[in-house]
Amino acid sequence: MNIDQIFKKIDDYAQHFSDRQLWEKIARMTKKVGYEVLRSVLILYYTLENPELPGKVRAVILGALGYFILPVDLIPDFIPIVGMSDDIAIVAAAIAYASLYITQEAKDKAEAKLKMWFK
Question: Per the confidence metrics, is the pTM higher than 0.90?
Fold first, then answer.
């Protein structure tokens, strides 16, 4: 499966994205997934605010965040340790895909939010 096929599949998860569900998932997973994973999730979230974000990149980000939200995906999130590995891989791939559109402002907002949570 090539990267375009993978991201096409991820597009299917975009319908599961919502702000409320993302924040609920982050609240539940804060201690389980760790700082760096949440940083990446938040960077993607704040990158959605970029008005110059192309539609395809927006779709990939929404798909990755939708995938992150869903508790039942390739590897169910409730399985200890490995349950989040597929979510982490999808988020990392979306970060790489969207890297040209990730602004310092999105990174700063993510860091500020994390500092509030992790003090």
Answer: no
- Rounded to 10 degrees, the C-alpha dihedral 8/33/44/55 comes to 10
Q: What is the pLDDT of residues 34-52, one digit of tens each?
A: 778 889 999 999 999 999 9
Which class for 98: exposed (0-12), middle (13-18), buried (19 or more C-beta within 10 A)? buried
The predicted pLDDT at position 43 comes to: 97
Tokens of 66: 């939708």
3-class SS letters over 36-75: HHHHHHHHHHHHCCCCCCCHHHHHHHHHHHHHHHCCCCCC
